[in-house]
Specification:
This protein has 275 residues and is an alpha+beta fold. The chain is 20% helix and 39% strand. The radius of gyration is 18 Å and the shape is globular.
């Protein structure tokens, strides 16, 4: 039996954010056992907490989707840290240090809210004309409807697309039958007292397509692009999950020369699993 939690991330209200399964004491589990359990939970990600191998880290995490392992992902980072702290984890220093496949990730605490430092983008720059044509085909948009686009890949492979407004983002109906495969992040400015940017995360790969409720990695790379090019100013709040009946809130701040991606988490399930 191993301690387990299911955490809703980027929300203060249970069942309005992005759920994450967390195995809190995964030491001794094999990679195959982790992959099998992550496939069974069928959540976008399941994490496994382990003792760190780096002496400066507080804990180590492995992040699995139902079909693969990620070196880094945003909502698993915040949800895992929330679960680790709630289970009695004590940081070695003021900042929490998470060890993962992407290296050491600093995490800040501000009351009940956690924030991670945005990792470096591994692929940036303008997409090619051919890539934009493929993106337009998936989104069923004319090229003139795209304000700007950029590769914003910090691991999952995002290509980011800025539209004219939040309404334009919500109006997009992606073509699930399109032959092209991209992970697309959509963003559009909004004027509201609840958020400044509407975000959607669309994925299509391996014959499957869908939409992620709230996505830390995408919001991190979006912020790096939008702030660098003067398309947004920090701090700002991104809203995500609207089309799925969720109400995710992602807080973007700049401090100490870094971009921080933060939000609240709430534990919805506690118990033990047979692993």
């Amino acid at each position: 039996m191993r301690n387990f939690a299911q955490v809703d991330v980027f929300t203060e209200q249970p069942y309005r954010g992005n759920p994450l399964a967390v195995v809190l004491d995964a030491e001794g589990m094999t990679e195959q056992e982790m992959a099998r359990f992550a496939n069974w939970t069928n959540l976008s990600e399941t994490t496994f907490l382990l003792p760190p191998t780096d002496p400066t880290a507080d804990y180590r995490v492995r992040i699995f989707t139902p079909s693969t392992e990620y070196p880094f992902a945003g909502h698993p980072t915040l949800g895992s840290c929330h679960a680790w702290l709630e289970s009695g984890g004590v940081p070695k220093a003021e900042q929490i240090i998470q060890e993962c496949g992407a290296g050491l990730i600093p995490i800040r605490r501000d009351g009940d809210r956690l924030a991670f430092a945005a990792p470096p983008v591994i692929r940036g720059g303008d997409p090619s004309d051919a890539e934009l044509e493929q993106v337009c085909a998936i989104l069923q948009l004319d090229r003139s409807e795209i304000v700007a686009a950029q590769w914003a890949d910090n691991g999952p492979g995002w290509i980011a697309v800025l539209l004219e407004s939040a309404d334009a983002v919500l109006a997009v109906q992606p073509d699930a039958g399109a032959a092209e495969s991209f992970d697309i992040g959509l963003a559009g400015r909004m004027e509201s007292d609840i958020a400044d940017l509407e975000v959607r995360a669309l994925y299509k790969a391996g014959g499957h397509s869908g939409e992620d409720p709230v996505t830390g990695s995408l919001n991190a790379s979006l912020a790096q692009w939008l702030l660098r090019d003067g398309l947004m100013t920090a701090p700002y709040v991104a809203r995500q999950g609207t089309m799925l009946g969720r109400s995710g809130r992602v807080m973007i701040e700049e401090a100490g020369g870094e971009i921080w991606v933060g939000g609240s988490s709430v534990t919805c399930v506690r118990g033990q699993v047979v692993l």
